[in-house]
Amino acid sequence: MVKNAKVQIKDLNLWYKDNHALKSINLEFKPNTITAIVGPSGCGKSTFLRSINRMNELIDNTITSGKIIIDNKNIYDDDVDEVAVRKRIGMVFQQPNPFPKSIYDNVSYAPMKHGITTKGIECDDLVEQSLKRSALWEEVKNKLRDPGTSLSGGQQQRLCIARTIAVSPDIILMDEPTSALDPISTEKIESLMLELKKDYTIIIVTHNMQQAARVSDYTAFFDQGEMIEFGKTDTIFINPKEKRTEDYITGRFG
Amino acid sequence: MKKSENPFYDLSLKKRHAKTKRFKLFTYSSLLFSLAFLLFFIVDIGIKAFPALNQAYVYIDVTYSEKSMRSPRAAIDRKYKKIVSRAYLREIPKHIEQNPSLLYTTVKKWVLADDQVDQYLKGHYSKLKAKDKVFVDELKKSEILQLKFNKTFFSNGDSKVPEFAGILSSMIGTILTLIVTMLFAFPIGVMTAIYLEEFSKDNLKTQIIEININNLAAIPSILFGLLGLAIFINTFGMPRSSALVGGLTLALMTLPIIIVSSRAALRGVPNSIRQAGFAVGLTKVQVVAGHVLPLAFPGIMTGSIIGLAQALGETAPLIIIGMIAFIPDNPTSILDAATVLPAQIFTWAGMPERAYIEKTAAAIMVLLSILILLNSTAIYLRKKYEVKW
Question: Is B286's CB within 8 Å of A95's CB?
């Protein structure tokens, strides 16, 4: 399948109490690509995404088995701290969720806590770079002290991306990042994703088939906790192997 | 337009609207009813408390001599014997001790009058004899006897002589007690709430704890007094009647209120904020202290102030641990014997002298004012620091 993979998922299983939410998933993600994960609601795609940065552990009674190997290290090994994993693997959520702090603090808070930067010019630089990379700088450069929540939905989402970039991760996970946004904001985020692809590996969960077709290099189709089909986006959309994939993509179910 | 031509005409509507109107009237009259009670209570207490603002004083010569040090009655003219307050006379030797230059002088000044004189001037029942009443009327006419602002009420502690009794010592006792209460209940309550909301897993153990916290909030307060008596006084040997024991006992009582309201405030912080924090690799402490607590703080403060207000009005547990004692002097530390405002009200309400009625009502007004002040602070804090998004 994919050569020199950045992320390798090996036989990943996940249970919420008695609910077998992910069934033996095997997948690989290549560096500097965008992989879209599509599938009907409740198929486990968000759960899968959250298992890559170990966010599922915040929910009581979840059991994970299998391996997720990033840079030749299984992130579920005992000697791996989930906080360190989450620093390397950023995440953007469905609803924009800026901290109720200023725009500046939203970006600088985590890097300061990680010791990446200290107060001063260095920090100002980091904030500026992060906001420029998330294509928000021009809109907010004169109001960095305003609360992050005062921005529009699309701007808030780009602020969340800037916040994620600021801790310099390798991988960015996006959980339906545009489903709460209007088409113009969506377009901005999508072009931003194509720009960010040069430096990061991006995995995006989406309900929007056109979006998956527009931005992703690879697509994985999930259904009922199983990974049904994975391949180049063009192949999946034009010539899927599985009947279920075809039915879903053409809108016959889901 | 005729009814038949109106396409929106509905025969049943008139009846249904009438029902709505009646229902609204019921709810509104319930509101009026409860307001009427409150108003009646406040007006009644207010009318009773109002005379306590003033107190009778008499303008006479006070002679400071060696004789008056031994027998203070010698300091004033014999004819004013029944007019001047006994408690004031008793203080005369103390005045000389504090200020020796007073000795061998005679000063004409306003002197506190006896409570019977005071009550007679205010038109209340008085035990004064008829000839004394005539004398008082004379003094009043010549303006030697007047009602003046009652400083004593705010500058004195309790006294068995009504005109000499004030709320200062019980106010200080109340403040000391509440400081102890907050110092213990606030950090312990907030920390408990943080543990239960942010760290503990939802299992049988935490559910049992939760039920017990809610039970604790419903326990009759007098039982907390027994608990305080058993633990703090009998087991740890802390001084009886002290603000320390009272404060700790009230802290036990306030704890569940603070825990429950803090938990509600923490639960009100949207989970997306926590997720955002974890997703950029923050630890639990950084997420809770940096993002969750600041958002929950207005709610926590509001709950704590309301808990404090409740502790302020609490009497029953303090009676058990002896804070109902007669305290004429101001407590200087939390180890001194002290009493609190509601206990003072309780004591005065049981006094036989007529003059205590207005004192009781005035103390109630002071207590109510503090309560209103505390509760409005709580509302103000909530409105001011509430984060909206």
Answer: no
